[in-house]
Every structure is written in C-alpha cells, then in structure tokens.
C-alpha cells in the first residue's frame, strides 16, 4: 500500500518495534546496531531505564501547563543547565531549529534593545546546518533546502569556514552575530579547529558581535565534554542545544548570558509546548546520567577506541575510506565510494550509520555504547567496506 505520509524522507523499508541500549529490533525480530542514534534519538540508548522511569512517573502526574504558570521541573532543568555552562538563562523549545530561531531573534533583539535595530545580519559558515524553518534554512545557506520556498529570509551572510579574510570582509556595521557549529554534523563531520573558535571569539569581542554556538548535534556529552566548545576554552554568548538533551524526546533549549538576552522581555517570544513537564522530566533525567561521575570519561574512552579501530579499518580499505573525522562519539568516515551505497551496505550487515555532506557517513552511537558494541560495529563496517571493494573490482572488470 502507498504511504499516506508526505514523501519528504527517503525511508528505508524497515520498521523498528523496540530498542534496547545500542540495539534496535525490527518487525520480524531482526536486530540492528544503531550507530545513527545520536542524530536525534536516544543519545543515551533506547529505553534507558532512568529516562523511562522519569517519563512514566511524570506522565502519571502532569503533562502540560501553560508557560503562564511556574513549571518546577523546568526551573530545575534551567538551573542545572545554567550551573553547568557559561549561561545565565535558558529558553525551552521543542526542536533544534526552534532553539536556533530563539538564538537568532535574541541576537537581533540584543542590538535593537540598544537602539540599533539595523544590526540584524548574522554571519554563518559554508557547510552549516541549523534546521529547516524559513530562517534556519537561510542561516544554513544551502540552495537545496532554500530553492522553491519563496523569498529567502533576509540577513544571513555566509563565508567559507576558516577563511578569516572573507569573514572580516563580511562583517559590516549591520552585523549582529556570528553563528557556528563547533563540529559540522550534516556538513560532514568537519571539526572547527579550537584555535579558529578562539579567533572567532576575539573577532566578536573586537567588533561588538554576539557569538552563537549551535550545539544541537555536538551537545550534551557527544564529544566527551558536556558541550563541544568547551574543548577550545572559549565561551559563546548564546548557545542552542536539542537532540542529546532530550535523549530522544522532543526538547530544544537556547541558553544565553543575561547580557545577550537583555532584549527578551515578557511577551517577546514563546512557544506553547516549550518547557512542558514531560520534556523537562526527561531532560533532568538525561542530566542525571550525563553529569554522573565517570560518564563523560566513558564517552572519551570509547570514542578513542572507536577512532583507533576506524584508523586501522582505513588502512585495510584505502580504496573505500579516505579519512577519519570527528571527536568523541561523533565520528565520520570520509569515503571514496558513494556514502549512500556504503550506508546501505552497512545496513545489510545490520549496522545503522547516517550519510552526511562531503561524502561522509556519520557514526553517532548512543553514549552508553560498550566496547563490545564498538567492536561489533567495526566488524560490520569491515564487511561493508569489503562489499564495496568487491563492487569496485566488479565494475573494473
Ligand atoms: N542544528 C544542527 C547542528 C543540527 O544538526 C540540526 C539537526 N540535524 C538542527 C540544528 C535542527 O534540529 P531539528 O531537526 O531538531 O530542528
């Protein structure tokens, strides 16, 4: 039967019924190792008992109240995020794009509140991805997401990553902020060097700009720090997070210093479901796990192990794998064969990986992944690479 859903996703014909840790179980009982989990769902693994308990308990008490009343779980999650980061205040939304919308509006309002509404332009970086709303596709700058959707939202200027001359030239008296992902996820696991992030901070300070860090994909432990920008030693003025903080539940957050948020007063912004008690209970449960002693150390250790094994895999399959990229448990293989073919070959081995730009496949396992899961994943990648190699040989004959 044809699907009743809008065909905006190229869906593989597998339906999952259950998940346990790093594994998904399909209809029919087949088990898949989920190294795509970090893209959105279940950063802490499927059906994590602490998250299930928190959600179930909250579901039996209260699902929703309007943001016109206090939401104690949200006050608590906001306080914990603020205490763990550079930020003074938090705004809860329901997705990454929505958190970025808040960040963009906040940066513009910051200057407007100072009597400079003409300072609304935001400089972003080639290869960026900030979401699929009208403003965030303009921020991301990729034609394939913009074309056909009417006038592009004004006020975004894009420069090549790492080109500081182009960046300086793009900054005008109308510029409000720079917006960047510390590691480009959709763009192909491109790590922004820590020295470059430090230079961006200096430029923002010198030019009176706000620095917006999009940590929607990198945040909440994925790279072995709570947030990836921490590796560089700098702090942003505004930061968005989603994916990981919800552990698979729809939850986004925009965090900011009190100064950067000075324009956001009562009535300036809002969203009905932002900060709802169910999402807040899950977010708090996620932090219980991620902030527990030894958890980030586990991410760093297993990330390093996976990276070492991938380096050996690259040496075994130089015709297929060109480069290993990423940090922590946010790793990618830059390929010499089409990434969608490689992802399909991995899926045939019952390993899920996610294609990204620049002909990369992403490995974003749940952060609770074990050394045995890592070994199993690399065996399957080995088989997938071997199958692509024999396809190459077949084509050459
Ligand atoms: N920013 C980044 C860096 C992302 O990776 C994504 C999602 N891939 C988004 C924003 C958008 O998040 P969402 O799909 O939750 O709107």
UniProtKB/TrEMBL annotation:
It comes from Methylobacterium oxalidis. Its cofactor is pyridoxal 5'-phosphate. Binds 1 pyridoxal phosphate per subunit. May also have succinyldiaminopimelate aminotransferase activity, thus carrying out the corresponding step in lysine biosynthesis. GO terms for molecular function: identical protein binding; N2-acetyl-L-ornithine:2-oxoglutarate 5-aminotransferase activity; pyridoxal phosphate binding. The modification N6-(pyridoxal phosphate)lysine is found at residue 243. SUPFAM superfamilies: PLP-dependent transferases. Pathway: Amino-acid biosynthesis; L-arginine biosynthesis; N(2)-acetyl-L-ornithine from L-glutamate: step 4/4. It is an enzyme of class 2 (transferase). It catalyses: N(2)-acetyl-L-ornithine + 2-oxoglutarate = N-acetyl-L-glutamate 5-semialdehyde + L-glutamate. It comes from the Bacteria. One of its GO terms (biological process) is L-arginine biosynthetic process. Its EC number is 2.6.1.11. N(2)-acetyl-L-ornithine binds at residues 132, 271. Pfam families: Aminotran_3. Keywords: Amino-acid biosynthesis, Aminotransferase, Arginine biosynthesis, Cytoplasm, Pyridoxal phosphate, Transferase. Homodimer. This is Acetylornithine aminotransferase. Pyridoxal 5'-phosphate binds at residues 96-97, 129, 214-217, 272. Belongs to the class-III pyridoxal-phosphate-dependent aminotransferase family. ArgD subfamily. The gene is argD. Coiled coil: none annotated. It is found in: Cytoplasm. PANTHER family: AMINOTRANSFERASE CLASS III (PTHR11986), SUCCINYLORNITHINE TRANSAMINASE (PTHR11986:SF113). Its main location: cytoplasm. The lineage of its organism: Bacteria, Pseudomonadati, Pseudomonadota, Alphaproteobacteria, Hyphomicrobiales. GO terms for cellular component: cytoplasm.
């Amino acid at each position: 039967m044809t699907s009743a859903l809008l065909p905006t996703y190229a869906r593989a014909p597998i339906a999952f019924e259950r998940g346990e840790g790093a594994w998904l179980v399909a209809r029919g009982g087949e088990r898949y190792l989920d190294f795509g989990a970090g893209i959105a769902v279940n950063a802490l693994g499927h059906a994590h008992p602490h998250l299930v308990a928190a959600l179930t308990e909250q579901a039996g008490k209260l699902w929703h109240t309007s943001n016109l009343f206090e939401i104690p779980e949200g006050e608590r999650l906001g306080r914990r995020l603020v205490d763990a980061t550079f930020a003074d205040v938090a705004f809860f939304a329901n997705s990454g794009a929505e958190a970025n919308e808040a960040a963009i509006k906040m940066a513009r309002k910051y200057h407007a509140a100072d009597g400079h509404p003409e300072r609304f332009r935001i400089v972003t970086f080639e290869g960026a991805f900030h979401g699929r709303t009208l403003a965030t596709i303009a921020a991301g700058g990729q034609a394939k997401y913009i074309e056909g959707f009417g006038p592009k939202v004004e006020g975004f200027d894009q420069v090549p990553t790492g080109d500081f001359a182009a960046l300086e030239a793009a900054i005008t008296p109308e510029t409000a902020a720079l917006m960047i992902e510390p590691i480009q996820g959709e763009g192909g696991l491109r790590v922004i060097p820590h020295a470059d992030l430090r230079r961006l901070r200096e430029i923002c300070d010198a030019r009176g700009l706000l620095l917006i860090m999009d940590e929607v994909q990198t945040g909440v432990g994925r790279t072995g720090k709570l947030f990836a920008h921490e590796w560089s030693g700098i702090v942003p003025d505004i930061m968005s997070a989603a994916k990981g903080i919800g552990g698979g539940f729809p939850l986004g957050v925009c965090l900011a210093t009190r100064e950067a948020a000075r324009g956001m007063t009562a009535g300036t912004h809002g969203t009905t479901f932002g900060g709802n008690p169910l999402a807040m209970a899950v977010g708090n449960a996620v932090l219980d796990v991620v902030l527990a002693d030894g958890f980030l150390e586990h991410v760093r250790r297993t990330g390093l192990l996976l990276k070492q094994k991938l380096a050996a895999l690259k040496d075994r399959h130089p015709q297929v794998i060109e480069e290993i990229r990423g940090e922590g448990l946010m790793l990618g293989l830059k390929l010499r064969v089409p990434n969608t073919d490689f992802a399909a070959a991995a899926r045939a081995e019952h390993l899920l990986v996610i294609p990204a730009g620049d002909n990369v496949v992403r490995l974003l396992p749940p952060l609770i992944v074990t050394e045995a899961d890592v070994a199993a994943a690399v065996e399957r990648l080995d088989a997938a690479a071997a199958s692509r190699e024999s396809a190459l040989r077949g084509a050459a004959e």
